[in-house]
Amino acid sequence: MKLRVNPILCDGYGHCAELLPELVELDEWGYPIMPREPVSRSLEPAVRHAVKMCPRLALSLEKRAR
Amino acid sequence: MSARLLAPIDTPLPRRRRAELLAEIEASGLTGRGGAAFPTALKLAAVARTRNAVVVANGTEGEPASWKDKVLLAENAHLVVDGAMVAARIVGARRIIFAVGRENRTVRKRLERALAGRSDGFDCFLEAVPDRFVAGEESALVNHLNGGPAKPTMQKPYERGVLVQNVETLANLGLIARYGAEWFRERGTADEPGTVLITVLGAVRSPGVAEVELGTPMRDVLQRFGGLSALPNAVLVGGYFGTWMRAHDALDLPLSDAALKPFGASLGARSIVVLPQDACGLAESARVARYLAEESAGQCGPCVFGLPAMADALETLDVDRLRRLAPQISGRGACAHPNGATRFVASAVDVFADEIVRHHAGRCTGSARSPVLPLGSSREWR
User: Fold this and answer.
1) Domain formed by B18-184, architecture
2) Which parts of chain B have pLDDT scores under 50?
3) Domain A2-62 annotated CATH 3.40.190.10
């Protein structure tokens, strides 16, 4: 599973970086940089929570690689 | 070399079965001529699997340093229409939309005339699109055709039954349907077969568009444009998403992606700009970087903020800042705009490294002159 952001929807609220400091970093304008690696099993519940909490619904946890 | 894409067509399009046409195109090895060089047969096959397919002939060519699609449409619109009908036959589409830039009246008239004389059982439409740099990106174009702004979306049109093909790709379909894959492969290299339309501008005697064989030595390509008109400083390969190369590196290569790859370059939409020795590559690049920032669709944060920051840093020649910015911009938008702009700027910093040193010492090799690289001017999105 990979964590992805829809960059058109994202407005840089930064909730994802707050909730997932071990996975998501913010760039200098406050937009999230997604991890390259797949999300580990142990972090999946936290990631699902972050996906739900995004105020722009810009995050998704996706199965297949694009 | 005798022309193919720009030669008048005097034989009717043969009636051939869908599967047979697709097999012929697959065997030809034709790749997309819009810049991404994706295998055409794969895209056709993907759309053929969907229902209610539509074909979009993409003649928007928003790249200011490229005129090859405009020349093709003005000189040989019928061949493009032929190819669009071949594509429509293969994917099972009834509707074909020809999308062209709003400003170019000649192109629109020629296409209108070409379409008026035909009744091949397809519903053909002509649509004028804002002349913006990213308007021809597949998803942006489809967004505009659907009534929205000409801005990219997260959709992949070919997954939803919309075949968007560059007009030069379609012209090749019109030829392959007539003469076959083997004939197509008589030109070009084994890995990159066929001929291509190429735009050359800058320090050549007759800038413009010509048809050349893939694999032709770059020096011979420039001879088709009257040869060099000044000592070359550098060469921009692949337009504004492309790569600056040192003249002595570029001029000895054959015109192919395989030859350009070691230099981190590719042919893209095959625009070549020869920068003359008395032009400043940094000033030219900074103008284009600013233009690309202004051409951002304004949707994705890293592009909205990153591209102006990159243009600022190039203007002030802050190389460290440019190095820090690149990974924060490239690959982080919905489309390839930020990636292309980042590649362009990175290659400028690399190729014009000596010029940066000179500038920091208060000097510049560019004498006063008008800019070499053209910019677009449309401010419309709808």
Assistant:
1) 3-Layer(aba) Sandwich (3.40)
2) none
3) no
This complex has an ipTM of 0.94
Query: Domain B195-276 belongs to what topology?
Result: Ubiquitin-like (UB roll) (3.10.20)
CA distance A31 to chain B (A): 7
Token code pair at residue B89: 């036959």
Contacts of A64 in chain B (CB under 8 A): none
Chain segment B78-122, per-residue pLDDT in tens: 999 999 999 999 999 999 999 999 998 999 999 999 999 787 889
Helix or strand holding residue B97 (H, E): strand B95-101
Contact B301 A6 (CB under 8 A): no
Residues of A with CB below 8 A from B302's CB?
A: 7, 27, 29, 31
* Rounded Cα distance, B289 and B28, in Å: 37
For B56-93, the three-class secondary structure string (H helix, E strand, C coil) is: EEEECCCCCCCCHHHHHHHHHHHHHHHHHHHHHHHHCC
Chain A residue closest to B334 (CA)? A7
Predicted TM-score of the model (pTM): 0.95
Chain B residues inside the 8 Å CB shell of A33: 328, 332
